[in-house]
Every structure is written in structure tokens, then in C-alpha cells.
Write a structure and sequence with these properties.
By secondary structure, this protein is mostly helical. The chain has helices at residues 2-22, 28-47, 49-56, 61-65, 78-81, 87-106, 113-127, 132-149, 176-182, 191-202, 215-235, 239-242, 246-250, 268-289, 293-313, 319-327, 333-341, 344-352, 358-365; strands at 24-26, 211-213. Strands 1-2 form a two-stranded antiparallel sheet.
């Protein structure tokens, strides 16, 4: 009996893992993550121009000394493969990274674009001093490349091999959501603008019947939960966090602060509560509650407020911005529809401006 129970338990466990990794999921979140990450990379590479020039430009440290300590890495990267110790390599790598970001966001050649993006991201993250946020940018690029090679990033492809029927008849339901999304939003006057608008803002919402295996989304979700849990775990190894005084000291310094928070030094009970709240959020609240449907949206909203607040008050560079991009993996198509509805005034403005027709024809024909 014990052996039989163990076998049943093992079978159920394997079935749960199989469902977790391979159940059909909508493409919509992954497509929108692709677009958001591509646009994020444009800003990311732009911000790296100055440090890259300082290290690898004509008058940079590498040109003057012949090498830089972080240049000794196991894998090849563009700064070494094509470097002539001049500004040209910086323009090439940074310009290529910006271009790859636009390419990824455009949805063109979605199997190749993530690989090119990964090449440029890995080159700068490897050799330019950064922080944990830069490593998360690298992880995001790696998961995007995996999803791209699997064909999960295709934009508006109705013949996808991963497209599964959503009702017993084998036919896809009418695109009611698609028409609601497009509704009054057409772009006609400029064919180029209309095509770009359709690819970036219409097509990701108009293929609700298309599904993919869940594993490509799960990679991002698991990475985010892993980051939170071990961030809190390692904080506990520090006495100031363990005793609840970490934020009391943080608000008193000025080097990392964007605004003056020193007034909180007179309220040690508040800073202690804030310290404990951060630990509970990272160790328990997010890793556990984000998987529970009733708590998913509240915990994501709390996380967004948490990271936006830190970005406004502290100088922590890209860490909080890239974490919010990871949040997108937990949003379902209906969540995106709710977010899209917030832009109804913009849709009405565009329709009143005469940008109508082409997007509707393109969407109805897709």
C-alpha cells in the first residue's frame, strides 16, 4: 500500500510539473515583453555609451594601458573580437545594441533578432562594470533568445505550429477582444506609421486564440521569484537587516539618495518596520503569493510601487526597471486588456485625427 501511494504521489508530481511547464498559454504576454524589452534596450545601450567610451574609446583606459581587469573573461565578446582601441568599436557595439533593441521590438525575424540582441547585451554586461541589474538584463536576453528559437515570439503569425484550438469544434472563437481593442484605432494617412502601429500595438492583442507551451513564460517567472527569495535570504546574513536597522542607516546617507530622507532618522520605529516589510516581501510575500490567483495582481501592484518608490528616492540604476519588465510574465491576456482600456482616450484622439482604416482592414484580414 505504501509503495502504491508513493507511486501515485510521484505520478501526480510529474503530472503537475508537466502542466506547469507545457500547458498552453497565450502568446500575448511574451509578445508584449518582447516589445517592452526591445524598447528598454534602446535606453539601456544609450546610457552605456559614456562608460564604454571611457573604457574602450580612443582615449579610454584600454587604449592607454592595453587592457582592463574585467576584460579577462572566458567567452569572446565584441569589444575584444573587433576592437582597434578606438571610438569605432564603441560606436559599433552601442549602435548595434540600440538597433537590435528596435529590431526585437519590431517583431521582424523573431528567431534571429533575440540572438543578435543577446550577442550585444552579453558583450557589454561582460566587460563594463555593472551591478545585479545588468545581470538580470543578461538573463532576460538569454530567455528571450530561447523563446525566439522555439518560435514563441512570432508576431501575428496565424500558421504557428503551437496554435491550439480553444473550443471543442477546433475553430477559434470570433476575435471579439481584437475588435474591441482595434475599435476606433486605425492608421491610414501614413502606411509606414500604420504598419509600425499595427505590429507594435495591434497584433500582440489580436491573436488571443494562439497559444504556446508555458515553459518560455515560466523561465521569466522562476527567475523573478528566485531573485526575490535569495535577495531576502542574503539580507538576513547582514546584522543590520537581521536586527531591523538597515533602512535606518540607508536613509541617513546622501551618496545614493535622490531626495533627502534624513527626517526619517527621528522615527526608528518606522525605519525598522520598513526594513522588516522589505524582508517579508522578498522572502515570503512575493515568492508565495504571486502564484495565488486572488493575490497575484495585488502583490504585483505592491511590487511596482515598491520599485518605483526606490527608483525615485535612490540611485540604483537599472535594477528596478528590469525587475518590472519581469513582472510582465505574470500578467494574463485579460490583464493586458484592462491596461489597454486605460488608453481609450488616446484611441479616440487617434481616430479623431483621421488615422483610421488600414489597421482595421489589416486586423480583419489577419
Amino acid at each position: 500500500m505504501t509503495s502504491f501511494s508513493s507511486t501515485c504521489w510521484f505520478s501526480h508530481a510529474l503530472g503537475g510539473i508537466d502542466r506547469f511547464l507545457f500547458e498552453p498559454r497565450s502568446r500575448t504576454p511574451l509578445r508584449l515583453m518582447r516589445i517592452a524589452y526591445g524598447l528598454f534596450l534602446v535606453a539601456y545601450f544609450t546610457s552605456l555609451y559614456s562608460p564604454a567610451m571611457m573604457l574602450y574609446g580612443t582615449d579610454g583606459l584600454v587604449s592607454r594601458s592595453g587592457e582592463y581587469p574585467l576584460s579577462h573573461v572566458d567567452r569572446p565578446h565584441l569589444f575584444h573580437l573587433i576592437s582597434d582601441h578606438s571610438d569605432h568599436v564603441v560606436w559599433l557595439v552601442i549602435g548595434g545594441g540600440i538597433t537590435s533593441g528596435f529590431w526585437l521590438a519590431s517583431g521582424v525575424l523573431t528567431r534571429i533578432a533575440p540572438l543578435v540582441t543577446w550577442l550585444f547585451v552579453s558583450s557589454v554586461v561582460t566587460v563594463i562594470p555593472g551591478n545585479s541589474g545588468d545581470m538580470l538584463v543578461m538573463c532576460f536576453a538569454t530567455y528571450m533568445a530561447a523563446a525566439g528559437l522555439a518560435g514563441h515570439l512570432n508576431a501575428g503569425r496565424n500558421n504557428s505550429p503551437h496554435r491550439l484550438p480553444t473550443n471543442p469544434t477546433g475553430k477559434h472563437p470570433p476575435k471579439a477582444i481584437s475588435k474591441e481593442v482595434v475599435g476606433t484605432t486605425n492608421l491610414v494617412k501614413s502606411p509606414i506609421l500604420g504598419k509600425a502601429y499595427r505590429r507594435l500595438l495591434i497584433e500582440p492583442f489580436t491573436s488571443s486564440g494562439q497559444t504556446i507551451p508555458a515553459w518560455s513564460i515560466r523561465l521569466f517567472q522562476i527567475q523573478l521569484v528566485y531573485v526575490y527569495f535569495f535577495s531576502g535570504y542574503h539580507k538576513l546574513a547582514n546584522d543590520t537587516w537581521y536586527h531591523g536597522t538597515a533602512l535606518h542607516y540607508i536613509v541617513g546617507q546622501t551618496f545614493w539618495s535622490r531626495v533627502d530622507l534624513s527626517q526619517l532618522l527621528g522615527w526608528p520605529a518606522v525605519t525598522s518596520l520598513m526594513t522588516t516589510t522589505v524582508l517579508l516581501f522578498e522572502l515570503l510575500a512575493f515568492p508565495v503569493l504571486v502564484w495565488a490567483k486572488p493575490w497575484r495582481i495585488p502583490i504585483l501592484l505592491a511590487g511596482v510601487i515598491f520599485h518605483v518608490t526606490i527608483s525615485i528616492t535612490m540611485r540604483v540604476f537599472v535594477f528596478h526597471q528590469i525587475l518590472i519588465l519581469y513582472y510582465m510574465a505574470f500578467l494574463l491576456p485579460e490583464d493586458w486588456q484592462a491596461i489597454w482600456s486605460l488608453f481609450r482616450p488616446l484611441q479616440k484622439f487617434l481616430s479623431c485625427s483621421g488615422w483610421q482604416a488600414e489597421a482595421t482592414r489589416a486586423t480583419d484580414g489577419s
